[in-house]
C-alpha cells in the first residue's frame, strides 16, 4: 500500500485515512460496510471509525465509535436540541477529545496492523462539512496521516440534471474546502447505469440536451453553472461502484493508492506547514499565559488560563455528555445506557 511516510527516524507505514462524505441516503454506511468486507476478504482489514452519534443500528463493527463516548440523546434532552443540533453539538464535544483518537491511529501506525482507516461521517453532510468540528477533525487527520476525501454520490437520485448539478456543486465545494485528494464514488450502479453521469461530466452538449427537457425555472441556472465546472470535471477522479455487490471496489482501491501518492507529493508539505504553524501559535499562547501568571501571581489574583471546563449553562462537561469510561452508548429510543464496543478492539 502506498501509505509510507518519512519520520525523523526513517520511513514508516501510515494508515491512509478515508473520510467518507455524501448526501443523506447516498449509501455511505453501506459503502463502508462493503469496503470493510471486501478488504477483509483480501486480508487487509481496515480500521473503522464511526462519527455518527445518532446511528442506531450499525451494520459493521467499528474500532472506534463516537457513541461509546458521547451520549447523543442526553445532549438532545439536556439542551432542548433537535436531532441535527444534537449531532453538531456531539461532534463539537467529541472533537475536544480527538487527540485520543489520533493516539490510537498512531498506535496502528507503529504496529502496522492496518493500512487503511475509514471514517464514516454523519448522514447529514452539512453537519460535518460546514461545522467547526468537521474542519478540526479533517485538519487533525490531514496534518498527521495521508488523508483522502471520498464523496459518495447516489446515481439513482441524480438522474435529473438539476439534481445531478446540485450534487456536483456540493462535491466541488467540499473539494476546495478540504484541499485534499478527492474521489467521487458513483454508488448504486447495480440499480442505474452510470453512463449518463459520466457522459454529462465530459460532454456539455449532452448535458444541455438533458436540461432542455426540464421545465423548471432552475434549468437556465443549471446550464450556466455547468459551464463553470469544466475545470472541476477535468481533474476529477471518479469510479462507479455497487455497495451491494462489491462491483469495481478493486478500481476504487487503485484510486486510493494513487490519491495517497498524490497526498505525499502535493499536499503533505502544506499540511505539515499548517501543523508547525499551529504548534508555534500554541507555544506562543502558552508562553503568554505563563508570563501573565508569573506577573499576576505576585499580586495574589486568580488567573484564568483559558481552559474550558463547563458549558454555557454552567454544568460540568463530563456530567453532561461524556461517558466516564468511554464504554457506554445511548439507546436511540430510550436513552438508557448499554454496553458498547471497547476502543481498543
Structure description:
The protein contains 13 helices and eleven strands. It has 345 residues and is of the alpha/beta class. The chain has one domain: P-loop containing nucleotide triphosphate hydrolases (Rossmann fold). Helix 3 runs parallel beside helix 6 (132-142) and helix 8 packs across helix 9 (204-212). The longest helix is centred in the last third of the chain and has 49 residues, at 249-297. The chain is globular and about 65 Å long. The model is unreliable at 5-12 and 299-345 (pLDDT under 50).
**Strand line-up across the major sheet:** 5-4-6-3-7-8-9
Under CATH, the topology can be stated as Rossmann fold
**Oligomeric state:** single chain
Structural class: alpha/beta
Average pLDDT: 79
CATH A-level architecture? 3-Layer(aba) Sandwich
What is the CA-CA span between the terminal residues?
23 Å
- How many beta-strand runs? 11
What string, H for helix and E for strand, traces the elements in order? EEEHEEHHHEHHEHEHHHHEHHEE
- Count up the domains: 1
Described by the principal axes of the CA atoms, the overall outline is globular
Annotation field: number of helices: 13
Are there runs of 5+ residues with pLDDT below 50, and where?
5-12, 299-345
Beta-strand content bin? 5-15%
Give a quick account of the main beta sheet: strands, pairing sense, barrel closure: 7 strands, parallel
Please identify the top-level CATH class. Alpha Beta
**Radius of gyration from the alpha-carbon trace, in angstroms:** 22 Å
CATH superfamily: P-loop containing nucleotide triphosphate hydrolases
Helix content: 40-55%
Amino acid at each position: 500500500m502506498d501509505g509510507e511516510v518519512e519520520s525523523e527516524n526513517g520511513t514508516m507505514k501510515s494508515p491512509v485515512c478515508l473520510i467518507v462524505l455524501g448526501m443523506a441516503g447516498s449509501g455511505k454506511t453501506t459503502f463502508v460496510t462493503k469496503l470493510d468486507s471486501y478488504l477483509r476478504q483480501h486480508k487487509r482489514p481496515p480500521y473503522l471509525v464511526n462519527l455518527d452519534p445518532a446511528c442506531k443500528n450499525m451494520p459493521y463493527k467499528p474500532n472506534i465509535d463516537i457513541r461509546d463516548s458521547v451520549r447523543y440523546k442526553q445532549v438532545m434532552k439536556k439542551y432542548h436540541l433537535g436531532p441535527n443540533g444534537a449531532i453538531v453539538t456531539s461532534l463539537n464535544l467529541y472533537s475536544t477529545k480527538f487527540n485520543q483518537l489520533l493516539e490510537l491511529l498512531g498506535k496502528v501506525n507503529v504496529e502496522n496492523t492496518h493500512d487503511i482507516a475509514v471514517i464514516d461521517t454523519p448522514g447529514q453532510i452539512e453537519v460535518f462539512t460546514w461545522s467547526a468540528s468537521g474542519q478540526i477533525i479533517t485538519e487533525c487527520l490531514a496534518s498527521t496521516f495521508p488523508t483522502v476525501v471520498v464523496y459518495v454520490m447516489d446515481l439513482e437520485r441524480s438522474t435529473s440534471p438539476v439534481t445531478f448539478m446540485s450534487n456536483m456543486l456540493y462535491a466541488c465545494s467540499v473539494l476546495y474546502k478540504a484541499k485534499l485528494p478527492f474521489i467521487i464514488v458513483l454508488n448504486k450502479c447495480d440499480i442505474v447505469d452510470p453512463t449518463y453521469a459520466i457522459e454529462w461530466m465530459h460532454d456539455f452538449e449532452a448535458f444541455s440536451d438533458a436540461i432542455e427537457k426540464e421545465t423548471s425555472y432552475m434549468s437556465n441556472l443549471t446550464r450556466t453553472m455547468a459551464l463553470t465546472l469544466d475545470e472541476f470535471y477535468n481533474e476529477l477522479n471518479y469510479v462507479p461502484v455497487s455497495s451491494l455487490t462489491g462491483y469495481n471496489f478493486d478500481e476504487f482501491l487503485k484510486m486510493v493508492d494513487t490519491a495517497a501518492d498524490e497526498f505525499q507529493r502535493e499536499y503533505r508539505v502544506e499540511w505539515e506547514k499548517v501543523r508547525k504553524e499551529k504548534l508555534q501559535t500554541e507555544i506562543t499562547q502558552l508562553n503568554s499565559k505563563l508570563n501573565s501568571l508569573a506577573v499576576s501571581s505576585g499580586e495574589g489574583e486568580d488567573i484564568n488560563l483559558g481552559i474550558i471546563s463547563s458549558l454555557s449553562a454552567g454544568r460540568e462537561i463530563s456530567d453532561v455528555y461524556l461517558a466516564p469510561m468511554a464504554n457506554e452508548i445511548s439507546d436511540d429510543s430510550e436513552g438508557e445506557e448499554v454496553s458498547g464496543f471497547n476502543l481498543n478492539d
